[in-house]
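hey m, so remember when u said the tokens were messed up on ur end? i reran from scratch. heres the input so u can diff it against urs
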Amino acid sequence: MSFERAKQYLTEQGLADRIIVPEHSSATVAEAAEALGCEPGMIAKTLSFLQGDQPVLILVEGMARIDNKKYRHHFGCKAKMIPAEQVEGLVGHDIGGVCPFGILPGVTVWLDESLKIHETVYPAAGSDHSAVRLSIEELEKCSKAAGWVDVCKSPEM
């Protein structure tokens, strides 16, 4: 169901032809990079946080990690991941397919500056066997992000 919701959203944005459904799982960065034949850093992983009771998604470069000091400085609170069993109910997509497309109302989306080192990225498309190929500009537009943040450590090389 969440793949269909993401697909419908991407169709409305004119990007359905960019959806990729690989044969193998794309649930983790490593699996997605292998399934898509790209560098792990090109995977735009979507991290889900709770700020109070507000769900927040942050898309980051595949190899990036949250920097707790930067997160606290930007958002004014500690980085608290949504417990796995609550992600689908709060966001609209389950672990492995979390993306900013076709999410539940009230979920805020941010894009991390770490993504800007790539011209093309591959966020999930609602399931653990999906991705969508987007330029950074297309991701910015279709994710309806609240803006750009710098809350990650530098990617490990």
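this time it looks ok to me. The domain at 2-149 is CATH 3.90.960.10 (YbaK protein). if urs says something different then somethings off w ur setup not the seq
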